[in-house]
Amino acid sequence: MNDPVSPAEALRKLLDGLPPRQAAQAVDRLIANYRGATPTDAPILRDRADVAAYAAYRMPATFEAVRSALEAFADAVPEWTPGSHTDVGGGTGAATWAVAATWDGERPVTVLDWAEPALALGQEIAAANPALKEARWQRARIGASLTLDDTDLVTVSYVLNELPAPDRAALVDAAASAAQAVVIVEPGTPDGYARIIEARDRLIAAGFHIAAPCPHSAACPIVPGTDWCHFSARVSRSSLHRQVKGGSLPYEDEKFSYVAAARFPVTPAPSRVVRRPQIRKGQVLLDLCEAEERLDRTTVTKRHGDLYKAARDADWGDAWPPAT
Ligand SMILES: C[S@@+](CC[C@H](N)C(=O)[O-])C[C@H]1O[C@@H](n2cnc3c(N)ncnc32)[C@H](O)[C@@H]1O
User: Fold this and answer.
1) Are strands 109-113 and 85-88 parallel, antiparallel or unpaired?
2) pLDDT value of position 67
3) Which residues make Cβ contacts (< 8 Å) with residue 13, sequence separation at least 6?
4) Which residues line ligand 1 (CB under 6 A)?
5) What is the pLDDT of residues 250-292, one digit of tens each?
6) Residue 216: helix, strand or coil by DSSP?
7) Who's near 36: CB < 8 A, 6+ residues apart?
8) Which phi and psi (to 5°) does residue 209 adopt?
9) 139 C-beta neighbours (distance < 10 Å), count
């Protein structure tokens, strides 16, 4: 039976039909393209082999990254469920799977992308997920003339890095005017973080409240160029993945940066763990981004009792202290 929560099983079935050598070659070409100068004037995902390679090689990772971001967002808006969802630059639909995994129920879903083969494959994969069966897969070009129909939630996952600066701004503004909530995810690199901060500033200027990862909607306390805010999501590796990338680990860690914001009131985390906690004998060191608009390291020791137990369980990206 298909697991409706993750695209991995649906993908495996679909890719079983693809000769491994052809799939590996398509992945190699895709990696080379993504290493080249982006943004591009035409879709990188040109045909089914490109898209199948993308789906096999990247979609499980983008799905897990978006799911982590959405979980943090959902914690900050516990009363809210999106009544509709638009995924811009949605490709094969990783974010639609992540939204369906975060909030039960069905809702109108629209996926917009300029790459027809990506939309076609996305629709095929989504047939395995009852929540996505009615999704509309539409061609659209992101640019100055982009307008979006009103919707509750807009997701923009791993797209800003493919756009020139004016199109990034146009996309964030279009999302802000159409949606009640906007979630944007980028690779967890210094550049990805810089694009997230740029988008965050635009969302705040449009009247949005930051729900996650930040504990506040004031300026980010990171001094530009000294560090970058990013998180990590664990991704199971498919056999194709292992074949292409080598290595024997059954998983890898996808690093991502994100911002989640809403027009309506939100309850952000009191503070957030922004690095992997360091567990020492009898103590845990937590690097926190705090509501007081600063970064701080706190040491939780055995003397803190239950809080110490919670600190030992705390993970990079978690809210701190945990909700009781
Ligand atoms: C790296 S993929 C991300 C796909 C999907 N959102 C995910 O998270 O897996 C980037 C997507 O943005 C789309 N894209 C890039 N530039 C675009 C543009 N100007 N207009 C529409 N779609 C665009 C690409 O076709 C591709 O599907």
Assistant:
1) parallel
2) 98
3) 2, 128
4) 43, 45, 58-59, 62, 89-91, 94-95, 113-115, 118, 141-142, 157-159, 162-163
5) 888 999 999 999 999 999 999 999 999 999 999 999 999 999 9
6) coil
7) none
8) -105, 135
9) 11
The CATH class for the domain spanning 8-262 reads alpha beta
Q: Report how far ligand 1's centroid is from the alpha carbon of 156 (Å).
A: 9
Which pair of structure tokens corresponds to residue 268? 């952000």
Q: Is the dihedral of CA 243, 245, 250, 256 positive or negative?
A: negative
The tokens for 255 are: 């690093």
List the chain domain ranges: 8-262, 271-320
Crossing angle for the helix pair 116-126 and 8-16, to the nearest 10 degrees: 110
Q: How far is the C-alpha of 297 from the C-alpha of 145, rounded, in Å?
A: 45
Q: Is 115 helix (H, G, I), strand (E, B) or coil?
A: coil
pLDDT at 247: 66
Q: Which of 64, 159, 160, 254 to mutate to test the pocket of ligand 1 (most atoms within 8 A of CB)?
A: 159
Instruction: Provide DSSP, 242-270.
Output: HHHH----SEEEEEEEEEEEESS-----S
3-state secondary structure 269-301: CCEEECCCCEEECCEEEEEEEECCCEEEEEEEE
Q: Is 180 helix (H, G, I), strand (E, B) or coil?
A: strand
- Say if CB 230 and CB 192 are below 8 A apart: yes
At residue 149, the pLDDT reads 98
Nearest CA residue ID for atom 27, ligand 1: 91
- Residue 266 CB neighbours (<10 A): 21
Predicted local confidence at residue 1, as pLDDT: 37
Pocket test for ligand 1, best of 68, 145, 162, 183 (most atoms within 8 A of CB): 162
Contact indicator for 287, 295 with CB cutoff of 8 Å: yes
pLDDT for residue 59 is more than 50: yes
